[in-house]
Amino acid sequence: xxxxxxxxxERWRGAAVSDGVAxxxxxxxxxxxxxxxxxxxxxxxxxxxxxxxxxxAVRLSRRQLLxxxxxxxxxLGDEHAYIFDAHLLMLEDRKLNEDVEQIxxxxxxxxxxxxxxxxxxxxxxxxxxxxxxxxxxxxxxxxVTQRLLVALSGESLPSRRLTEDACLVxxxxxxxxxxxxxxxxxxxxxxxxxxWTSHTAIIARGLGIPAVVGLxxxxxxxxxxxxxxxxxxxxxxxxxxxxxxxxxxRARLSLASAAAARPAEDERxxxxxxxxxxxxxxxxxxxxxxxxxxxxxxxxGIGLFRSExxxxxxxxxxxxxxxxAAYEELLRVAGEDGATVRLFxxxxxxxxGVMLEAGDERNPALGLRAIRFCLRREDxxxxxxxxLMRAASKGRLDLVLPMIxxxxxxxxxxxxxxxxRSRLAEEGKQTGPVRVGAMIEVxxxxxxxxxxxxxxxFFSLGTNDLVxxxxxxxxxxxxxxDWFRTLHPAVLQSIARSxxxxRAAGIPTVVCGEMxxxxxxxxxxxxxxxxxxxxxxxxxxxxxxxxAGVSAAEAEGVARGCLECATADDAEELVxxxxxxxxxxxxxxxxxxxxxxxx
Length: 599
Ligand code: PEP
Ligand code: MG
Hints:
CATH architecture of the largest domain: Alpha-Beta Barrel
CATH superfamily of the largest domain: Phosphoenolpyruvate-binding domains
Distance between the termini: 29 Å
Bound molecules: phosphoenolpyruvate, magnesium ion
Number of strands: 17
Radius of gyration: 26 Å
Number of domains: 3
Number of helices: 23
Oligomer: single chain
CATH topology of the largest domain: TIM Barrel
Shape: globular
Low-confidence stretches: 1-5, 155-160
């Protein structure tokens, strides 16, 4: 599907991970992970300052190269130092510098972006060269580009403003990158990798932004500024849409916004099933842009705050006062129902280049992640615990320990927290009570749930990771998305076992993975005994509606049947059949788990 000059319409299929349709323009986010580069729109007065910033980066890079050349000449001899001459020549190339500055001035964008555009063009020319030696010189261009970008990163970007109609296109977006962008202005997201529970997907749903992931090689074909339709209802993106496609997309867009503008039915009333069982619905939040939804959709406080989103891409750890202010703000948003803050769940797919000593772990999902990171970096844990206890003097604040697999980790964390409580008292600082919970998201925690329940004040069931770790399926890898089976009996048994252990110990459980936000699964969860669900605020209305239409007793019957099943296929088929009989209007076939492996 090559990109043609005539701008023929091109379609890519992926997995829709949120709802809605968007019409906008591609904004490519380069190099998933640590070196994402954004196109930042500048205000006119910022342009000349930006050019000066670029020139300063060139001067710095030049000084570095001269020093390197000298060192190479000394240690390796002059004949090896010539390579730096090539780099210096490029760096001093008038045409290259003029091109970069011209883009900054004419397009009013940041230098990083302009460098990338110019060097991408150069690289494309080199790609076409037949001569092997010359073609290989493209690595010099990459090298100099990297040097310039690093030099530029020494200063902060002028702002994070994005253009109005930006549809983010990336191979992969790190959560920390997402946290840095002004998401209020992002129209849609399209990424080459990712799955339903990847963090890009979770955030996009939280903000109500159409998102399609798992597009494989879309990023390579899209260019910033290309017209794009992101259709998260059909799991499709359309590059260079024809006038007819655009018209059809806009028609669906206005239908969707009319539906969204309709006043919600009695959002503040408690959520109840048809047979009167109350189910408490809380909000999951990551970014301030989502805070408004907590009240708007009638959430009973914040059931999960993913605190790692307080860290920015450059890995700057907020200090105690900054964290304390952030948690107080969270309490203000949450109101009297309070908020549950999860300790930094760093590592795995969430590190985003942040301060991890583990470096490039061979298996990050099984590495120095979450509670392990907190215990390794006790200074980080102590600061966060102090900030949380101080903020708790202003309202009801709980903390939850991520990725618990061994009760010893709970005890160690609690000991550190208590030490800091005593220290705060000695310092005369005001604190409030903080309940400590455990995330149940690995099979080990579910297996020892009865004993774990005696050591904590509540459970948070993280079904995203529970499915990932129980089934050994990477939640963000679209290649194995077919094996990510939420209704797998092993997953359901772990959930049932954890809920029962909490009930027996008299502690509450909040289910806060994406399962809770999906109406059909939410009903199964209620059938398994869940009475408290936490989800992106925008998901609350549809879950509330689904629960109001079902009977908890009947849901229990279906859930019991699923627990007896041998395979995920069997459980899904059972759900399709039983939901279809019991609640056909509420759950039309397209809302039920699709057939995956049965032919
Ligand atoms: C989960 O694992 O289900 C969860 C709620 O945490 P996260 O998605 O942030 O890993
Ligand atoms: Mg998790």
